[in-house]
Amino acid sequence: LVASVFGVPLVVAVLLPLAVLGLPVLLVTSDGGRRIARLDAISEWTRNLASVITAGQSLEQAVTASVRSTPEAVRPQVTNLVARLRSRWPTEAALLEFADELDDATGDLVAPPLVDPHFHMDATLSYGLPRVNASGTLLEGISLWGELREIATVEEMVARAVRYCDWAVSMGLLAIRTHVDTTPDHLRGVEAMLEVKRRVAPYLDLQLVAFPQDGLYRAPNGRENLIRALDMGCDVVGGIPHFERTMQDGADSVKDMARLAAERGLMLDIHCDETDDPHSRHVETMAAEVTRHGLGARAAGSHLTSMHSMDNYYVSKLLPLIAESGMTAIPNPLINITLQGRHDSYPKRRGLTRVKEMQAMGITVGWGQDCVLDPWYSLGTGDMLDVAFMGLHVAQMTHPAEMARCFTMVTENNAAIMGLQGYGLRPGCVASLIVLDAGNPVEALRLRPD
Ligand code: FE2
């Protein structure tokens, strides 16, 4: 009603959600009676306003005239709004101030929690240790981490990871899948992340991927240590075929990991083709193996950056194979555009996989964070809205429906990729939700509020 009468998007953003979206928040507040009274007052005031405007008055005139009949519960705020309009405040600024004065979450966006399906928590918040990544490449990052993991203690890794989890929760990020390096024989990272998972369990869903960072076959004991990590309690089988010594070793590692996941009834999440090599073919092998073992959506291909550089004809064959397998995809836009293209002059490739094209084939695609303040990435806060914002730009998802989908990617899609049970705002789901200071998902991405 308000939208059709005023025809002003700002007014819709400020007033309509106040009247419509209040119920979920009211249900969880202790002073529900007072807030219901105020919601009723806002509703009555907006209805009166709409009828006056219909009679031909401008918005400003109608607001000014409405003071006398404004219900007591919101009269102080409306009186201030009128005073600002009379003082020649711009209408938009006056309405925004009005919204601030109401200071009521009933006008905000209620959404299920943010979810991150791709992270490296054993390395997070270690930026500069043992030194910064001078080349900015994936390979120097792997090398630096190889040094750091030998000097990092369990206690230090736990402390960094728990601190990051605190950051995450403060931003509404309540489920994270993290890859844990299983390369060193000491497996201190696995021990540390299992402890973190135990500590944060009351408030954050943490999935652990056994991740052979230096290769399943390339690293000494790579396969044995991955299996030890699974036996210790990791939830997901991981891999890195493009880092094996040969394409054949990479393909064999994918087959091995898919078989391991199928035999153990676990999920599979492979760092797959994280290169600029247009001839990297591990995602093709992965899709075939996922189909062979019937893993479907229990399997996710992370990064898939080589697809950015692949021949278009080849991709036209590849995408149906991925769709047929039912596997999901996790690009990591902040990291992909930072690490990829480092060997290019100009034009410089951006390295993001083909997101819209995969979605057009019905493939579930989420956005992952990957790194915050570690050997691979020198920035980051854990805010999944930043991740979606960057993904929106790099994938050129600028149509209103595409922008809204970017929000869905860091909520519902990521939850589906992680196989979270009871996720969502439907009856019967886990009562976990976030309130964002925005009128809708697109505005949430534009403003990225706390
Ligand atoms: Fe990663």
Low-confidence stretches: 1-29
Helix-strand pattern: HHHHHHHEEHHEHEHEHEHEHEHHHHEH
Strand order of the largest sheet: 2-3-4-5-6-7-8
Give the distinct bound molecules.
Answer: fe (ii) ion
Q: Overall 3D geometry? A: elongated
If helices are DSSP runs of H or I spanning 4 or more residues, what is the number of helices? 19
Instruction: Tell me roughly what share of residues is in helical segments.
Output: 40-55%
What class would the helix/strand composition place it in? alpha/beta
Give a short overview.
With 450 residues, the chain is α/β, with parallel strands linked by helices. Helix content is 50%, strand content 10%.
Describe the protein's architecture and organization:
This protein is 50% helix and 10% strand. The protein is α/β, with parallel strands linked by helices. The strands form 2 sheets. The chain has a 7-stranded parallel β-sheet, with helices on both faces. The chain is elongated and about 80 Å long. Helix 2 (9-20) packs parallel to helix 7 (91-102), helix 9 (154-170) packs parallel to helix 10 (188-200) and helix 17 packs across helix 18 (400-418). It binds fe (ii) ion (FE2). Fe (ii) ion binds at residues 118, 120, 179, 271, 302, 370.
Topology:
Elements: H1 2-6, H2 9-20, H3 23-26, H4 32-54, H5 59-65, H6 75-86, H7 91-102, E1 109-111, E2 114-119, H8 138-151, H9 154-170, E3 173-181, H10 188-200, E4 205-211, H11 222-232, E5 236-239, H12 247-264, E6 267-272, H13 282-293, E7 299-303, H14 312-325, E8 328-330, H15 333-339, H16 355-360, H17 384-394, H18 400-418, E9 434-436, H19 441-447
Parallel strand pairs: 2-3, 3-4, 4-5, 5-6, 6-7, 7-8
Antiparallel strand pairs: 1-9
Fe (ii) ion is lined by residues 118, 120, 179, 271, 302, 370.
